[in-house]
Amino acid sequence: MADMDFTRKFNLGDQRDLEIKNILSAVYQALQEKGYNPINQIVGYILSEDPTYITNHNNARALIRKVDRDELLQTLVKYYLTH
To answer: Is the pTM of this model over 0.85?
Structure first.
């Protein structure tokens, strides 16, 4: 019963961060394959939330739309500041 005296924390944050990283990597690759500058296109998408900045190639546009823009920015900033 002593094990029941504390509260366990459950965190899916790391798993979600990994999912976002995988999505962003796939989008980056698709943009690169189509000859776009992936950084410029992703920044354009983040600033405007206009999905036409992202190619449909390899389903990249649908992938990036699975991630809320605020969540994407939060993950990017967190990664940048911790690495």
So the answer is: no
